[in-house]
Specification:
Layout lengths: L2 H27 L75
């Protein structure tokens, strides 16, 4: 085995060991309380063990395959559309698929 291939295999092994040792958990934990945690301003007890910021958008793997892979069924509501002086939004429009999946 030449030295180049040996170095590549060692690097791959190190990456696998790091990922399997919990490094990925540390990286994912950085979502809590960040702008990517869309529940960061909601009134919930974020110290609870069951607090999972990713579960707001991502269905757990035990989700039913009868529905889109989302955390809950779409409610029959009208969404308040973004309004700005610099953004011309047509009144009365509601989000269409696939954007509506992000709003359930």
């Amino acid at each position: 085995m030449n030295e180049y291939v040996k170095n590549i295999l060692i690097k791959i092994l190190i990456i696998i060991l790091l990922l399997s040792s919990g490094i990925s958990d540390i990286l994912w934990a950085s979502i809590k309380g960040s702008p990517h945690d869309i529940r960061h301003d909601m009134r919930i007890n974020k110290e609870e063990e069951s607090y999972e910021p990713c579960a707001m958008c991502h269905t757990p793997h035990s989700g039913s395959s009868d529905y889109p892979l989302w955390n809950r069924m779409a409610p029959g509501v009208v969404y308040e559309m973004y309004q700005s002086a610099s953004f011309d939004m047509y009144e009365g429009n509601q989000p269409q698929a696939p954007s509506s999946l992000c709003l359930v």
